[in-house]
Structure formats: C-alpha cells, structure tokens
From TrEMBL:
The keyword Magnesium does not apply. Gene3D superfamilies: P-loop containing nucleotide triphosphate hydrolases (3.40.50.300), Tetratricopeptide repeat domain (1.25.40.10), Winged helix-like DNA-binding domain superfamily/Winged helix DNA-binding domain (1.10.10.10). PANTHER family: TRANSCRIPTIONAL REGULATOR REDD, TRANSCRIPTIONAL REGULATOR REDD-RELATED. Keywords: DNA-binding, Transcription, Transcription regulation. Coiled coil: none annotated. Residues 1-90 form the OmpR/PhoB-type domain. The keyword Phosphoprotein does not apply. Belongs to the AfsR/DnrI/RedD regulatory family. This is Tetratricopeptide repeat protein. Residues 1-90 bind DNA.
C-alpha cells in the first residue's frame, strides 16, 4: 500500500464497511487471518442461527464488496477465494489484535531473558491497544464466543503484567489498577489475590483482609463456591504475618456490595415498618429473577445503622444451577467464623453449633441475610433464639412452614411495572440515552416483562455497546422472531444467564407439572383458567388445579382466583422446552374445542332458539348471568381464539367460534370485536368453501357493520348472505336475513322498506314450524308499523308476538317486544302504560345482559316521563342511559345529549 495510506491506517482512520453484517464478516476473517475460513463458518458468523435463504450467495457478494473496500482504502491486504471458503492475508495492515500478539510475544521474550522491567513496560503498552470490549456490537453467537475468548486473553495479560509490576515493587500503582479491575470482574480470584498482596505490600493490611472477606461473600452468595486454594493461601500468609488484631477488630459486615437500585417504595416501607414492630424474621418470596436478593441487600445497607453489631450474609444456594445447596451446618460454620470463634472451638454437631451461634447472638442487634433458601428446614437452624436481631430470608418458595410456627412475616415481590422498569434502565444506562431512543426503550421495557434480571442484563448489554443506536439494536434483537431468551443469555456469569436461572426451578418440577408448563405457551391470551388448562393437557380439572398450584409455588405462574398467567419471557422459555412429544398442535386443538364448547353453551343460554349450525350441545350454564360472567371474563381470549384457529389452519373451528361468540359480543356492546371475529371467520369459511359458514359470517358481519353504522358494508354482506341461504334452501335463515335488512333500513330512516322486509320475514315464518321465529317476525312488523304511525295495528301485532315469546320463555324477544309496545303506547299518549312496559323491559335486559337495548328503553322511558311532566324522573332515566352509551356507543350518547338540549 502507498505510504500515505499506510500512515492513515496506522493513525486509526476508519474505513466505512456498511452495516453490522459487513462488520461481522470482517471480524470473522480477521480473527482467522492467514487461515482459510469455510463459507458455512462465515454464514454462522454473519447471521447466527437465523441465516436468510441464499446466505451462501450473499457471503460471496459481501466478500466481493469487502475486497473492493480494502482496495479503495489503499491497503495491501488480500482476500482470495480458496476452497472451502476464503483466505484473508492482512499483510502489513497493523490491526490491533496482531499488534497485541506481537507485543505479548516480545514481552515474554524479555522476561525469559531476565529483563523484567522492560517486559512489564512492553506488556502494559500492549494492553493500551485495547479500546473497550472486544468485537463490541457483534450480534451472532460465534462472534460473541470469540469476543469472550479475546476478553479472557486480555484479562490474563493484565494478571501477568500486574504480577510482574508487583515483583518490581510498584505496589501502589498495582493496587490502583486492581481496584477497578476487581470491581469489574468480582469473581476473578487472581485479581483478588494480587490486590491483597499489593495492599499488604503498601502497608494496608486491614484493607487486604477486607478484599478477602468481600470476595468470599460474593463467591459463596452468587456462585455457591468457596475461595480457591490461591486465595485461601494468600489469606493464611497475611494472617501468619501478624495474627489477631486486624481481623479481631472487624465488626461483621458481610453484605455484598449494594446495587444501583430502583426504588420499590412499597416493599422498602414494609421492611422499615416491620423492624419497630419487633419482627425477627421476614421471608422475601418471589419468582426467579424478580430482584429478591437486590431488595434484601439494598435495604440492609440502608438500615445498617439499626444493627450496630454488624451484618451476616450467606448464600444458601437453594436454587443454585449446580443443584448443590449449602447445608445449615456449612452456613453455621461460616457465621461462627465471622463471629470470631476459633476453629478449634467450633463444636462438631449441628445442634451444638446452632446453640453456640444463638448464644453469641443473644444480646446483640444484628442483621442476618439468608439468601436463596430452598425450604424452611434449611433456614430454621440459622434463626436466632432471642429477639433483637432480624433475619431476612429470600426464596423462590413462600416457606410457609416458617409462618406456621409463627417465626416469620412474609413479603411477596412481584414483577416491576412499566414505570419502575423504565427507571431501572435509566439508572443503569443513563437517562439521556433513553430519551434519545424512546421507542426502543418502550419496546425493551415491554419485552423484559417487568423482570428485573432481564432488565439488568438488557441494560448491561446496552451500557457496554459503543453503537450510537445501541437501544434500538437491542430492541430489534428482543423483537426478533425465534428465541427471545438469546438476548439474556451468553454472559460469563451464570447467575445473570436467564435460561440458567429459570432452569433451576424447572428441573425441580414434577414431570407432570413440567409438561403442563411446557404446554402453557400454547395458551390463548395472557391468562388461562383451570378448566382450560385441563383441556390443554388432556387431564381432569382436579389434577390440573394441583399441578397449577405446584407451578405457582415454583414461580412459573401467577394465580388470581381461577385464572393463571406467566410473563412473556416464561412463555418464551416454555416454547423452547416444548418437544414434538408434547404434541403442541394437538394441545391447541383441544384448547380450541374447549373454548368452542363453552362459547356454544354460553350462546345457548343467551339465545336458546338461535338457528343451529350443527354443533352438538354439551355442557350447560345454569343461568344467563353465569353465561355472561364467563364470557365477560374470557372475551379477549375468545376473540384471539378465532385468530389462532385460523392461523393454525383450523378453519372450521375458526368460523364456528366466530358464530358462537356473536350473541354475547352483540348484547354486551363489543361491536368492533364482533366485526373482527366475523371477518376472520369469513376468511376461514372461504378457505373451506363452506357455504353455510360463509352465509352465517356474511350475515353476522353485516349486523356488526349495522351496529357500527357502516351501512354500505352491511347491505353488501346481507345481499350475499341472503343469496347463499337461498341456495342452501334454508328458509329459517332467510327470515333472519330479511329482519336484519329491515333493521339496517330502520337505522337509515327507511321505515317503509324496513316494513316490507319484515313482512316478507313474517310470510315465510308462518310457513315454518316453531313459534319463536313467528313471534319475532310479528314484533318486527308491529315495530315498523309503529314507526310509520299506525300505532293501533302495531299494538295488535306486538301483543300477539309478546304472547308467543312468553309461551316459549324467550326473555330476549320479550324485552324487545316490550319496547315496541311501549313505543306504541307512548305515542298514543298512554304514558303510565308506556312507563310500565319500558321498566319491565329494562329489568329483563338486566337479567339477559342486553346493554344496548336497555339503553334504548331508558332513553324512551325518559322521553315518556318528560311527556308526563316529570322532568326529574326523565333526567334519572337519561343519566342511566348515558352511562351505557358512553361506554359502548358514543354516537348514541351524543345523539341523546343533543335531544336533551334541544327545545321541546
């Protein structure tokens, strides 16, 4: 390359490569400089687990582009095709990794020749070539693995360099460097060893002993391991130099370092209040990753002045990934050591150790934090025998055994809300960065599901990324289809690996509960009832209830009455664990069948004489109120079930579900949902070429459009529906279509056309068996005659219809007919009769859950009261009507307000 270009490259002038895929490609080639890299390896490095189709061709194109970029930059590097891939020869290009390797070899050569001082200087210069995390911004697993390897090489070089400098007597400088390195890498024991030796050499022996204490606490609490032999030997060396005084004067202060904490005010206040009330033990319970340990440690630091005799802390490893928890005896021996009991004075039996421990605590005021407890049996030997000290226990289990004996208060830690989640990110990442990328921040908050561990991992990834749009990149990674937990995995710290944390609880589930958890990702909607879980897993309801209780105890579901749910990250974890043997497709069909059966049963209760579509009656609801209550609770699930069935290719279930929820969605005023499910149902029926399904969906979609005042849409669908029902020869359904057309014409003020269609419906009804259809047609003719001013004839038709409705027990039809009769009497100025009819109709609406009709009845009731010179009663009725219309039909509410304000 030309001299000027070489100087520019050596000065660090950047070369524009394009997007992250181009950077991934170059990173992989440089990591394997002067070695052939296979095409498949490049594909993995560039795209990870989700390569596009034609990835091999894209690699060829990207290599060609990179080759041209290197050439334009004037670099002497070559990039050649060589089976089975490509070979990059950087030549004299001084990229940082190559320079570091050269300097590292030179430093070791100087050390071998005995020139320790120059060796240390060269190695420190080599370490200066590192400018932040290696391969920052890479987003594929192979490159993340390579980055971890490079980081390990850097840390090993620091250990070597600082060890050499310590030998050269540079203790103060080494201690300064190691203070920061130890803070950033708290589990790296070699850093702790060097820092202890540097502090001791600088005359700061007590500080060196504190480094050991702090490191041991963190290793035991977070990783469940004791210090290794080098760290233990270093402690022995320091104690042997001048035993006794430094260590003996230390008040136990074993709490791990405090974290930057988002204020869970309610929980912190609860802990504050428990201390004056004389609490001796508080169990902080909650699911994995919810922040129990952070809360206990943060509160412990804030309340340290309340415990002048110090703090004890132990990680009991009840849910450690290794599966090996700390025994009470091991924990007791650690506490006795912290309380300055010489090893030879520690008794051998657990009971004797516990007795000595309690004796030492008597009369003291200490805070004892028992982190990550497995069960009550692990905790009981560690409880003080007298008041004064406070024990904080954290556990994924509620440890109800401690409450039964009256020894513990309980505090349950829940998921964070959106505001606290945002605050946690602000504390960890910085508020300006969040404000610069608000949409990405909101997406990260949503994807992390309020789980503090997930938020902390996401924040750490964003904080160390040099990319200007790090939050946007992270949000895109979280939103990417496939494996959402990948964004919270791959850290060196197993305690921060979300999969590892969740797997510990999962492995402790019974096989049956584990299967239910895996299948729960199939659930429809955010929550699921016990009966639905039974259908999903093909088990009986009592068994499902027991397994859900086990899952709730393990933190895998949250329970509220009969409904259960888990956050999105748990759902993603369950999805990953599901195998073909679990038969998720069959489980979805069982779940859809359950909702279809229940929705059909609710429809039967609400509209028992509705035209059937071939579904077989199964279970029943005891009352209309029970059916409405169930449908109210499951509405969002039922609407989504129609979509899920269609997406899964279960088209018959899709349109039948849409049909089954029609009556409920209409009467409860959820008309947008009604239109949505009918559109999806119609698409499913079209896929099946099911003429009856198409006809039903066209008709119900038209009715929903009429409710929403989309009359052109309604007219088009009704016309199609009527043609299809005529083709099927279904005269009963034709009656319904004519009445639906009449209703639509009425809404547009075309009363004569509405009467014509209602008379056609009545003509067909008289030729068919059954009375409900005839009663409905009689009422429709009476209603439209009333609207056209023929009130006497209207009354005759409506009274005949009312008699038939009462004969069949159809309260929905009866309520509609009472409105028609009331309207006729109102306009004949029989005010008392009209008021009675409207009030009876309104009461019936309460029984059947018909909200819109009740609003209409109350509106007419108000008008009648006003005509009868009772304005107060009129206002009362209208206020009640507005309460309904404001919620389900704002335009109707606006019309009513306008009528009230207009002069009469």
């Amino acid at each position: 390359m030309a001299a000027d270009n070489r100087k520019a490259a050596q000065a660090g002038v950047p070369i524009s490569l394009g997007g992250p895929r181009a950077r991934n490609l170059l990173a992989c080639l440089l990591l394997n400089a002067d070695r052939v890299v296979g095409v498949e390896q490049l594909v993995d490095a560039v795209w990870g687990d989700d390569p596009p189709s034609g990835a091999r061709i894209q690699v060829q194109n990207r290599v060609s582009t990179l080759r041209a970029q290197l050439r334009r930059a004037g670099l002497d590097a070559t990039l050649d095709r060589q089976a089975p891939g490509y070979l990059l020869r950087p030549g004299p290009v001084p990229y940082d990794l190559a320079l570091f390797d050269d300097e590292l070899r030179r430093a070791h050569a100087l050390m071998a020749s005995g020139d320790l001082s120059r060796a240390a200087d060269v190695l420190r210069t080599a370490l200066g070539l590192w400018h932040g995390p290696p391969l920052a911004g890479v987003d594929t697993a192979p490159l993340r693995t390579a980055a971890h390897t490079l980081e390990e090489r850097r840390l090993e070089a620091w250990e070597t360099c600082l060890g050499w400098e310590l030998e050269l007597g540079r203790a103060d400088a080494v201690a300064r460097d190691l203070t920061g390195l130890s803070r950033d890498h708290p589990y790296r024991e070699r850093f702790a060893v060097l820092l202890m030796r540097a502090l001791a050499a600088a005359g700061r022996r007590a500080a060196a002993l504190e480094v050991y204490r702090r490191t041991r606490v963190r290793l035991v609490a977070d990783l469940g391991i004791e210090p290794g032999p080098d760290l233990a030997a270093t402690l022995d060396e320091l104690l042997a130099e001048a035993p006794g005084r430094d260590l003996a004067e230390l008040v136990p202060a074993q709490l791990p370092a405090d974290v930057r904490f988002v204020d869970r005010r309610r929980h912190l206040r609860a802990l504050d209040n428990l201390v004056p009330e004389g609490a001796s033990c508080v169990v902080i319970a909650g699911p994995a990753g919810v922040g129990k340990s952070a809360l206990a440690v943060h509160w412990g630091h804030s309340a340290a002045s309340r415990f002048p005799d110090g703090q004890l802390h132990v990680g009991l490893r009840g849910w450690a990934p290794s599966g090996r928890s700390l025994s009470p005896g091991e924990a007791l021996r650690g506490f006795l050591e912290a309380l300055r009991v010489p090893p030879e004075k520690v008794p051998t039996g657990l009971q004797a150790q516990a007795s000595l421990y309690r004796s030492l605590l008597a009369g003291r005021r200490m805070l004892i934090v028992l982190d990550d407890a497995r069960d009550a049996e692990q905790v009981r030997p560690l409880l003080p025998g007298t008041s004064g000290s406070l024990v904080l226990v954290t556990s994924r289990e509620p440890l109800t055994g401690l409450a039964v004996t009256g020894r513990a208060d309980h505090l349950t830690l829940d998921l964070m809300d959106a505001a606290d989640s945002h605050e946690l990110l602000a504390v960890r990442v910085g508020r300006p960065r969040l404000e610069a990328e608000p949409a990405a921040t909101a997406e990260i908050v949503r994807r992390c599901s309020g789980l503090p561990l997930a938020l902390a991992v996401a924040a750490a990834r964003a904080a160390i990324s040099p990319a200007p749009a790090a939050l946007t990149d992270l949000a895109a990674q979280l939103a990417r289809a496939g494996r959402p937990l990948d964004a919270f995995t791959g850290t060196a710290d197993r305690a921060s690996d979300l999969r590892t944390v969740l797997s510990v609880s999962y492995r402790r589930l019974s096989p049956a509960a584990a299967r239910v958890f895996r299948l729960l990702h199939v659930r429809i909607g955010d929550r699921i009832g016990t009966a639905a879980v039974a259908a999903l897993a093909d088990i009986d309801r009592d068994t499902a209830a027991g397994l859900l209780a086990e899952l709730a105890t393990a933190g895998f579901v949250t329970t509220d009455g009969d409904h259960h749910w888990g956050h999105d990250l748990l759902r993603a974890y369950a999805t990953e664990l599901t195998t073909d043997a679990d038969e998720p497709a069959a489980a979805l069909r069982r779940l859809l069948d359950y909702y279809l059966r229940r929705a059909y049963a609710a429809d039967q209760a609400l509209f028992p004489d509705r035209d059937p579509i071939g579904l077989v009656p199964g279970e029943r609801f005891d009352s209309v109120a029970a059916a409405m209550a169930w449908a109210d609770a499951e509405r969002a699930v039922l609407v989504e079930a129609v979509d899920r069935a269609h997406a899964a290719g279960e088209h018959e279930r899709s349109w039948q579900l849409a049909w089954a929820v029609t009556t409920y969605l209409n009467r409860s005023g959820h008309w947008h949902d009604w239109a949505r499910v009918q559109r999806r149902g119609l698409a499913a029926a079209n896929r099946l070429r099911d003429v009856r399904g198409q006809a039903c969906c066209h008709r119900d979609l038209a009715n929903a459009a009429t409710r929403l005042r989309r009359y052109d849409t309604a007219r088009r669908h009704l016309r199609t529906s009527l043609v299809l029902f005529e083709r099927l020869g279904d005269r009963s359904a034709q009656v319904s279509c004519h009445k639906n057309v009449a209703w639509m014409e009425e809404r547009e003020g075309r009363y004569a056309e509405a009467l014509r269609h209602s008379e056609l419906a009545l003509e067909i009804s008289r030729q068919l068996p059954g009375t409900r259809r005839l009663a409905s047609s009689l009422n429709a003719v009476g209603w439209y005659r009333a609207l056209l001013g023929d009130h006497a004839a209207a009354s005759e038709f409506c009274r005949e219809g009312l008699r038939l409705f009462r004969q069949t027990g159809d309260r929905y039809g009866e309520a509609h007919t009472l409105e028609s009769l009331g309207y006729a009497e109102q306009h004949r100025e029989n005010h008392a009769a009209a008021i009675e009819l409207y009030e009876r109709g309104s009461a019936l609406c309460d029984e059947i859950g018909e909200r819109y009709l009740k609003g209409q009845l109350l509106t007419r009731l108000g008008e009648t009261h006003l005509s009868a010179a009772d304005p107060d009663a009129a206002r009362t009725a209208w206020r009640a009507a507005l309460d309904i219309f404001d919620e389900i039909d704002p335009r109707a509410a606006a019309d009513l307000r306008e009528r009230q304000s207009s002069p009469r």
